[in-house]
Amino acid sequence: MTTYSGAPRVDPSTGTVVHVVGARQNRPNLPTDVCPFCVGGLEAPEPYSVKWFPNRWPAMPNERCEVVLYSPDHQQTFAGLGVRGAREVLDLWASRTAALGQRDDVEHVLIFENRGRDVGATIDHPHGQIYAFDHVPARTAARVANNWAPQTASALLVAENDGWTTSVPLASAYPVALEIAPQIKVGTLSELDDKQRDACAAALIDALTRMQRLFSPTIPYMLWVNQRPTTNRPEHENAWLNIEIVSPWRANNVLRYIAAAEVSTNEYFNPLIPEELARSLRDVRASQ
Ligand SMILES: [Zn+2]
């Protein structure tokens, strides 16, 4: 079978961008016996605290896909890293964003994590990924063009932490969704000073801990960082750094599927009321 790894295709009728990545069909679904991310494993022969390396099964050509290891401890979770551990991850995210952003063929750096089998994670070892796009993806561009800024509605507020706000978005496509952002506009992780990075790490741990307390420590989630595109065009001036965390669960161990009515229309039916989710997350004490 021929595989293609050329430029992304665009559906002419909807504008949807599709990366055809036939080669990824050959990647392993699960490691057979040993974890490649544990110290001594295939991707981590030497001891480390946090670490990045090029993805062996990249979704895009030309060194655009990287893996970030959060901890050498296979059983660890992001929430379990604590503020100090999360800060180390954040510093690595910032330095990789800056390094990839300097490339002439990179316009946008996306940092993300898929946690749990329900969202397609194939290895349990705590890790995330980075994609360096040669264009600004449509959703990212739309949020910037519409001047995304942190929620101020108190009914949607979850927590305020040292200059950072965590809230539930007004209209998420996912039943469980959180947004974490600095209260003063900053465009990228690299621009955060030492104190802001600690506060960001604390807000991130707080948000994940609340979500896990309200549902379960095993709740699957997708996390990603929305940063200013690295081309720094005038139209991106208003970009406001924020981190989104969403889960496909609508209740403990109950997956909500995105199905025909939603796929066909790109309109969503959310069974959780955002204001009620915000109240429940507010009431769950993150540091019990
Ligand atoms: Zn491992």
Q: For the record, give the distance between the C-alpha atoms at the N and C termini, rounded to a whole number.
A: 55 Å
Number of strands: 13
Structural category: alpha+beta
Major sheet, described briefly? 9 strands, antiparallel
Question: Roughly how much helix do the residues carry, as a percent range?
Answer: 10-25%
Q: Describe the strand arrangement of the main beta sheet, using strand numbers.
A: 3-4-6-5-10-11-9-8-7
Count of distinct structural domains: 1
What is the fold named in CATH at topology level? HIT family, subunit A
Give the SSE order as H and E letters: EEEEHEEHEEEHEEEEHH
Characterization of the model:
The protein is of the alpha+beta class and 288 residues long. The chain has one domain (31-283): 2-Layer Sandwich (HIT family, subunit A). 23% of the residues lie in helices and 21% in strands. It has 5 helices and 13 strands. It has helices at residues 82-101, 138-145, 194-214, 260-265, 274-283; strands spanning 9-10, 17-18, 51-54, 65-69, 108-115, 127-133, 157-161, 164-167, 176-182, 221-226, 242-247, 249-251, 254-255. The strands form 3 sheets. A 9-stranded antiparallel β-sheet has the order 3-4-6-5-10-11-9-8-7. The model has no long low-confidence stretch (mean pLDDT 92). Residues 35, 37-38, 74, 125 line the site of zinc ion. Zinc ion (ZN) binds at residues 35, 37-38, 74, 125.
